[in-house]
Amino acid sequence: MSSRLLVVTGISGSGRSTCLRALEDLGWFCVDNLPASLLPAMHEAMADRTEPQPVAVGIDVRAGAFLDDIDAALSTLEIGGISVELLYVDCADDVLLRRFAETRRKHPILAAKSIEEAIRTERQHMLALRERTALVIDTSDLNIHQLKAKVGELFGEETSAARMHVSVRSFGFKHGLSRDADYVFDVRCLANPHFVPHLRPQTGLSPAVAAYVMKDAGGQAYLDHIIGLLGHTLPLHQIEGRALVTIAIGCTGGQHRSVALAQEVAAYVRGLDIASVTVSHRDRPHVDGEKLP
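Above: the chain's sequence. Below: its structure in token form.
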């Protein structure tokens, strides 16, 4: 019986170790900083167990020259009919600089004259691995708890290796663009419930706000265009074996229009029955008694 094999890699400081700990909490057998040449032996050893566990192996720039062995190791596994999943954890350079400054940790590339130079050098070393990775998590806007939750969404018991995952997210442009999105829809062209006094304190999760956005603000026509596109492209992503598709919907503050449209888009994608779906609202303020449907 073959066990699932995942290689977790990425840029130092982006949260790769957090991903491995989250996978371990989900019941995965995790090994960090394994030389790539040992991947086939690791998979064979785990597959021969009576009750094989899914295996996650951390490989990053600390492997040094061993990084050059990864293509050969992956080819050996593929020839043997073993499908290896790759997860690349990335982060914006400015966020990485802040994280290294806050933790005062050394960068693994010690020969670099500065953290900026180390990050540039590391990206060059990791480029080939990044280009062959289909599943990328950008942690620029995620804290530790949010990153662990995302790993749970992608690799928890309810998400199979073959099933695509679609993450639908609302956000406010005034708080910054959603960085890791595959699709970004700007709904600031719709009439804004912020200027309707009795709707202003509520969010797009409120039935009254949602009804206003979809009807009076022109949201239904906009939604029709979104689902027309996604209805065509998401099945194609599934066919190509895409693991994660992130759809971001933004309005000015991330409270009304984007929230209402994100809920509708998530419901539509669930109805396609080709992917597991989660919906989140990055900038939605807390309103007492209001819950996600």
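The chain has two domains: 5-155, 164-281.
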